[in-house]
Design a protein that fits this description.
Distance between the termini: 21 Å
Shape: globular
CATH superfamily of the largest domain: Type I PLP-dependent aspartate aminotransferase-like (Major domain)
Structural class: alpha/beta
Largest sheet: 7 strands, mixed
CATH topology of the largest domain: Aspartate Aminotransferase, domain 2
Strand content: 5-15%
Radius of gyration: 22 Å
Helix content: 40-55%
Oligomer: single chain
Bound molecules: pyridoxal-5'-phosphate
């Protein structure tokens, strides 16, 4: 690369990732094949529209790329229709709202401070500005309180029930949520961004055939490039002028909201990389990977608990853990910094009913997708928990933290990033 400045920064980031353990649960390490597609000549091509219906010439190859990605997504998730053009998860959610709602309509999602995403109706995001957002919470125990959600839905009568989270360690009861949405005539969106990889591997129940629309980012447990997909059932795109907001028209409504509603030209290199990731996720070894992600998370949860850490909901069913540090007397920021100093990257996070507030929260959120991709197993989770305890306890002892960081680095270097293999 001729640009030395950027080259050096890429090398620095490569070294940071390989010398340390990435435990932010929304991150993963994509394969060399995914990187190859992302860095390919497909980036140069404009192709506004959809395969067979483009506003540009020369799309005969990218049409095939997009069709392949769509077909793989449909097969993997078991749905009739897939839109693979959304630039990322946040625009994808905005596109779904645009497809099915009018400005000012009521949406009901999990509050950010209880594990929901910004785009589920948080007041400073477009979802909270353009729509009337009402937000539900978890119960005191950290679990979704389905009775409370039902009562709120009856009172608020949302047009859209948004289900999904960025910091929820337990399984979603899709059927119960469907019933709640049906009782008030609401659309149901399942945002499975975090758990998509677990779903396709059978490690978490699928909302396919239950939720009206499924959205997932492609760069988390699914282990692809940054991007997103919107999945639904219904008839494929029809050339009708006015498309009623009915279930059978969902594919057309979604496609029109993505383009021309919200976006211009699709990122064909990204679409190709999504197709690669979907192919990888359909292989038997991906099932084993997802199983190991959950096993590692459960083992880490047990090890942290035995060291006095308090886990929201008492453990995990999936890839992530939410640790409430109030009993340890350390803030989320302090723990994030201490762990970062030893080479374990996590992020500070609110816990349900956080006494400290969102800017200086009481917890940390961590997960096993990336370290499992590198090959770490349950026995390593014992070591990771031990390092975490030591780092948090010795947060002010720079010598101790330095020693720990050498140990972490030694282990990390035994497990190369997949793109280096
Ligand atoms: C549940 C959920 N939805 C949507 C998003 C938004 O995705 P992106 O960051 O790609 O816009 C995220 C990202 O963290 C997420 O966790």
């Amino acid at each position: 690369m001729n640009d030395k400045d950027i080259y050096e920064l890429i090398v620095a980031e490569h070294n940071r990732q390989s010398n340390t353990l990435q435990m932010i649960p929304s991150e993963n390490h994509a394969s060399a094949d995914v990187f190859a597609a992302l860095g390919s000549i497909l980036t140069d091509k404009y192709s506004e529209g959809y395969p067979g219906q483009r506003y540009y010439g020369g799309c005969e190859v990218v049409d095939k790329v997009e069709n392949l990605a769509r077909d793989r997504a449909k097969a993997l998730f078991g749905v009739d229709h897939a839109n693979v053009q959304s630039y990322s998860g946040s625009p994808a959610n905005a596109e779904i709202y645009m497809a099915l709602l009018d400005p000012g309509d009521t949406i009901m999602g999990l509050a950010l401070t209880f594990g929901g995403h910004l785009t589920h109706g948080h007041k400073v995001s477009a979802s909270g500005i353009f729509y009337n957002s009402v937000q539900y919470q978890t119960g005191k125990d950290g679990y979704l309180d389905y009775d409370a959600i039902e009562q709120m839905a009856k009172k608020e009568k949302p047009k859209m029930l948004v289900v999904g989270a960025t910091a929820y360690p337990r399984v979603f009861d899709w059927q119960r949520l469907r019933e709640i949405a049906d009782n008030v005539g609401a659309w149901m969106l399942a945002d499975v961004s975090h758990i998509a990889g677990l779903i396709v591997a059978g490690e978490h129940p699928s909302p396919a055939g239950i939720a009206d629309v499924i959205m997932t980012t492609t760069h988390k447990t699914l282990r692809g490039p940054r991007g997103a997909m919107i999945l639904c059932n219904g008839n494929p795109s029809t050339p009708l002028k006015k498309v009623e907001r009915t279930k059978k028209n969902l594919p057309t409504l979604i496609d029109r909201a993505v383009f021309p509603g919200m976006q211009g030209g699709p990122h064909n290199h990204q679409t190709a990389a999504i197709a690669v990731a979907l192919h990888e996720a359909a292989q038997p070894d991906f099932k084993a990977y997802a199983r190991q992600v959950v096993k590692n998370a459960k083992k880490l949860a047990a090890e942290l608990k035995s060291r006095g850490f308090n886990l929201v909901t008492g453990g995990t069913d999936n890839h992530l853990l939410l640790v409430d540090l109030n009993n340890i007397g350390v803030s989320g920021k302090e723990a994030e910094d201490a762990l970062s100093n030893v080479g374990i990257t996590v992020n500070k996070n609110t816990v349900p009913f956080d006494p400290r507030g969102p800017f200086d929260p009481s917890g940390i959120r961590l997960g096993t997708p990336a370290i499992t991709t590198r090959g770490l197993k349950e026995n390593h989770m014992v070591q990771v928990a031990e390092w975490m305890e030591q780092a948090v306890k010795n947060k002010a002892d720079s010598k101790k933290l330095d020693l720990l960081s050498k140990e972490v680095k030694k282990l990390a270097l035994q497990f190369p990033l997949p793109s280096d293999k």
